[in-house]
Amino acid sequence: MHLGTLINIVSILFGAAMGVALGHRLPEKISKTLTDALGLVVLVIGALNLAALSNSAFVGAVTQPGTLLVVLASLVLGTVVGSLIGIEEKLSHFGTWLQLKVSKGGDKDKFIEGFVNASLLFTIGPMAVLGSLQDGLGQGFDVLALKSSLDGLTSIAFAAALGWGVAFSAIPVGLWQGLLTVIAASAGTLMSDALIASITATGGILLLGTGLRVLQIRMVSVADMLPALIFAPLITLLVANLL
Questions:
Q1: Cα distances (angstroms) measured from residue 99 to each of 120, 167, 186
Q2: Comparing C-alpha atoms, which of 210, 169, 171, 167 is closest to residue 19?
Q3: How far is residue 46's CA from residue 31's CA, in Å, rounded to a whole number?
Q4: What does the alpha-carbon distance between residue 3 and residue 145 come to, in Å, rounded to a whole number?
Q5: Given this model, what pLDDT does residue 104 score?
Q6: Taking the chain, what is the end-to-end CA distance rounded to the nearest angstrom?
Q7: What's 192's DSSP letter?
Q8: What is the DSSP letter of 190?
Q9: Could you please report the per-residue DSSP string of 16-82?
Q10: Residue 71 in contact with residue 49, Cβ under 8 Å?
């Protein structure tokens, strides 16, 4: 029944509601420290995803040096396309519009930060891609169930510090994962291990950028790099067919 994404959306909304309820009771120092802890975890997850650069199927398709070159080319092309489209700017404007509609008296900057950072974190990771494909192919939603648990806990900590903007990250999560689920259900098993590894490795770098944002070290324009996740499997296919 492809319920994985729906469960994920509910977990984010529930976690955000709990976080907002707790936020008023937590000292600002604790909220900030929780956010810093999450930022560090995101950096670790991003680094772990880079292990996909050594995935045997990925290496077999494009060679060992080729894996990094594929990711680099994907990031360059993805960033150019994303910047021309203005994804980061549009996402921020959407966050501003949401804030004006639902939370006129709140802190606009915190609302937008919570919405944008949570949206990036919950949509970029390989679990979003792999789980949605698995769900669409009728192989169950185990991966998305695990992701839902993690997203729910993360939403609590994020929302405690940044407010209701985190809850609205459920919108891009639903659209992205729902689209992937529909594609998988329609197209069948077209995603090879090499293609998935290319997405995972590229997503790992984007997660590193998201971690830097969460830690407020540097506001990397990760949203403008999102098309890299589309270019990665396409370039992998192209290189594999040329070799």
A1: 18, 11, 36
A2: 167
A3: 23
A4: 9
A5: 59
A6: 40
A7: -
A8: -
A9: HHHHHHHHTTS-HHHHHHHHHHHHHHHHHHHHHHGGGGG-HHHHHHH-HHHHHHHHHHHHHHHHHHH
A10: no
Q: Cα–Cα distance between 64 and 66 in angstroms, integer?
A: 5
The answer for residues whose C-beta is within 8 angstroms of residue 213's C-beta and 6 or more apart is 39, 117, 120, 219, 220, 222
Q: Is 232 left (phi over 0), alpha (psi -120 to 50) or beta?
A: alpha
CA-CA distance, 223 to 162, in Å (whole number)?
19
Compute mean pLDDT per 10 residues along the chain, 243 residues long, and list them. 84 92 78 80 86 94 95 96 90 79 68 86 78 77 82 86 88 89 74 84 87 86 88 93 87
At residue 2, φ and ψ (nearest 5 deg) are 55, 55
Letter string b/e over residues 64-74, b meaning 16 or more CB atoms within 10 A of that residue's CB: eebbeebbebb
HSE toward the beta carbon, residue 130, CA cutoff 13 A: 20
Are 227 and 211 in contact by the 8 Å Cβ rule? The answer is no
Cα 230 to Cα 202: distance, rounded to the nearest angstrom: 10
Q: Cα 213 to chain center, whole Å?
A: 13
Please state, in angstroms and rounded to a whole number, the distance separating the CA atoms of residues 98 and 91. 10
Residue 166: which residues within 8 A CB-CB, separation 6 or more? 12, 15, 16, 19, 114, 115, 118, 155, 158, 159
Nearest to 35 by CA among 139, 144, 161: 161
Measuring CA to CA, which residue among 44, 48, 50 is closest to residue 71?
50
